[in-house]
Amino acid sequence: MLRLLTAISLILPLSLGTASVALGTAPVAQAVAQSGPDPASELAALFEDDWAFTLEQNPLFATQVGVREFNDRLSLVTLEDYENRLQMQRQFLQRLLAIDRSSLSAVDRTNYDLFERSKRSSIAELEFRTYLMPISSRSGFHVGFPDMPKRIPLVSVEDYENYISRLLNFSAYADQHMALMRAGMAEGVTVPAVSLRGYEESITPHIVEDPDESLLFEPFEEFPDAISETERARLTEAGRSAIATSVVPAYRAFLAFMRDEYVPAAREDIAASSLPDGRAFYEHRIRRFTTLDLTPRQVHETGLAEVARIRAEMEAIIANVGFEGGFAEFVDYLRTDSAFYVATPEALMRETAYVLKRMDGQLPALFKTLPRMPYGIRPVPDFIAPKTSTAYYSRPAGDGTRAGFYYINTYDLPSRPLYEIEALSLHEAVPGHHLQIAIQQELEGLPEFRRFSGFTAFVEGWALYAERLGLEVGFYEDPYSDFGRLTYEMWRACRLVVDPGMHYLGWSRQQAIDFMAANTALSLHNITTEVDRYITWPGQAVAYKTGELKIRELRGRAEAELSDRFDVREFHDVVLREGAVPLDMLAAHVDAWIATVLADSSSSSAEGESGP
């Protein structure tokens, strides 16, 4: 799973042009005016204006991609900010549609199409007012903020002053989020109550009597050598004061708000379809996350078919290892036998690191292009570990100052089996998320919105496809590890069943838990946290299997049509070299590559023929 949060000029008024005219250039300006606007220049200016607006609205994202202009600020999240965002997205779309697409180059037509899809999706999200539910069972402003020191530059006095400014702004930031949630309560738009169980575990660790005990105080415990002792003392005291006067009171107020107002008002129905205009909302979410024109029932039926196929492969492994018992007994054996588990967090980290180092050595056999940016591994922070997933990935900084990181959940070790490590690590790090995202960020010639954004079906579909690549380079040789691979694939297939099941087809939470428990070897703890994730993030979970199925379909088509001319390294280059794109566009890219290879082959054959 991917966890997501360029010098930028001020946004130009929409009525202004993008080129300035110096004195003495009137003839040139007159010629440009007579020839009409240049569509390519208009498109580039639009992208620049949109990117500048995005960064101004989302300073935390700006920091993440390496833009430092807004490093002292937090994101804009008032109701007025979201209304302004909606109006601007509509204006950006209008500007796009006014550009003559037919006059653009092939590359710019692709950029045009991707920008249009992105704007239409963003507009729909804002019109459905999803921002009135700014937290989920496992995420939110209160969860991401304490991890901020790991995601921002902290090498200079200015960096520390910016950090302190953000600490001081957190109180208002929390108030703004609570205002959004109160507006949601008034409209019946809340997170389901059942998914909020244990919510206090992600809040109370940050309500400390001594600011030095806060996770947010860590940057003041060890400074870079370049910062003087005098400055260290000043910054430490300022940081301590900001935590005591802003951060801790904000968390205390948020805990009271959740306890006294939000949780009692949270809706009982888990389905997205129970929200205002909920069925249309969930249908939109399916299209948004799959990038395909699918209905919830089509997704559900595909999931049932995949569950049946994968179940047969799992049953075959059970038979091959000679286990005496059925599927349920075998899964219980995997969940309870101590041989499949480690005793310490350090041991889990070591096992993971060994798997990844082995895969690092195999990457050249599968890929022509590898990223320059490295990755590291870290444990999931303790305060969110009980409620979050088995692992997740954090992308590298856009300016190259921070590596990508694979976060491993070391909480509740009896729910972290060794037989899952290969599939999980290949998904989150290499050749999964890190390889794909780092390559995308390093692509040259793309507008910024393409380098730093993406489509979930592609990003997560690739990572699930990457799990299967281990079969081609010596992984999953142990049958239990191969069963772990299949149970991870089954997990994603079950999502196709239970997500529309709960949100559209009337399934209960317990029905979803039971279905996943009956068909996967995931621990019951993981299953429960996953189902609560699907409840509070409608539609997102169906993207994984949808994307993987499409990539596998395209690879199968290429292998069949190209036969011995198929090169897996070339295929992967075609898939990755444009960054994350919608699945229909990916199919067009692969089909064009197949046609080119066939044409080149035919041309070579013709040139090699001799006359009579």
Task: Jot down its keywords.
globular, mainly alpha, 3 strands, 59% helix, single chain, 22 helices
Structural summary, described in words:
- By secondary structure, the protein is mainly alpha-helical.
- It has two domains: 233 residues, no CATH class; 268 residues, no CATH class.
- Helices cover 59% and strands 2% of the residues.
- Strands 1-3-2 form a three-stranded mixed β-sheet.
- The longest helix is centred in the middle third of the chain and has 37 residues.
Question: Which spans have pLDDT < 50 for at least 5 consecutive residues?
Answer: 4-34
Content of β-strand: under 5%
Q: Main sheet, how many strands, which sense, barrel?
A: 3 strands, mixed
Could you say which overall geometry the principal axes of the C-alpha atoms support? globular
Strand order of the largest sheet: 1-3-2
Find the count of extended strands (DSSP E, 2+ residues): 3
Could you say how many structural domains there are in total? 2
Would you tell me the overall average pLDDT?
92
Order of helices and strands: HHHHHHHHHHHHEEEHHHHHHHHHH
End-to-end C-alpha gap: 62 Å
Q: Helical proportion?
A: 55-70%
> How many helices in DSSP terms?
22
Structural class: mainly alpha
What is the CA-atom radius of gyration, in angstroms?
26 Å
